[in-house]
Write a structure and sequence with these properties.
Radius of gyration: 21 Å
Largest sheet: 3 strands, antiparallel
Distance between the termini: 65 Å
Helix content: 25-40%
Structural class: alpha+beta
Strand content: 5-15%
């Protein structure tokens, strides 16, 4: 394997494995590297990336987001945009975009988009947004469940 140009970009470990296996697969390392390259960004990821370059953070309804992304995104209704975003969650994540769906206490649905750079200068989410309920850690030792 050519170590002067190590694998980088998307899935570097998988690319390194594929490049090592390339002779057995009947192709060259360069052909394998090209297979891992993305030809063009996904339209929704590109539209959201452009929005985040202007705002760095978005929080609002699907209707508000649709107004900002039109006519770039092929969706014409807020529900369609929400569904398109949900189905593109991995693509957005691969592009370094964090997507979250939240429901406010009044029932309003909120979409949050941010750059995955970890910048602490982002706006904070609305005060009345539902908390992010991460799973609690599980006990590490077996608990005694004897009944007196």
């Amino acid at each position: 394997m050519n170590y002067t140009n190590p694998p980088s970009g998307r899935c570097p470990d998988a690319l390194a494995w594929a490049m090592a296996a390339s002779p057995a697969l009947g192709c060259t390392e360069e052909e394998m590297r090209q297979a891992f390259d993305l030809a063009e960004p996904h339209p929704i990821a590109e539209a959201v990336r452009n929005l985040l370059e202007q705002r760095r953070y978005f929080t609002g309804s699907a209707t508000q987001l649709l107004e900002l992304l039109q006519p770039v995104v092929g969706c014409h209704k807020p529900k369609g945009l929400s569904q398109h975003l949900r189905s593109s969650m991995l693509t957005l994540s691969d592009s370094g975009i964090v997507l979250k769906f939240r429901r406010l206490h009044e029932g309003a649905k909120i979409i949050e988009l941010s750059d995955d750079s970890g910048d602490a200068s982002y706006e904070k989410p609305p005060q009345d947004a539902s908390p992010n309920l991460d799973p609690q850690p599980q006990p590490t030792e077996k608990e005694d469940l004897t009944v007196p």
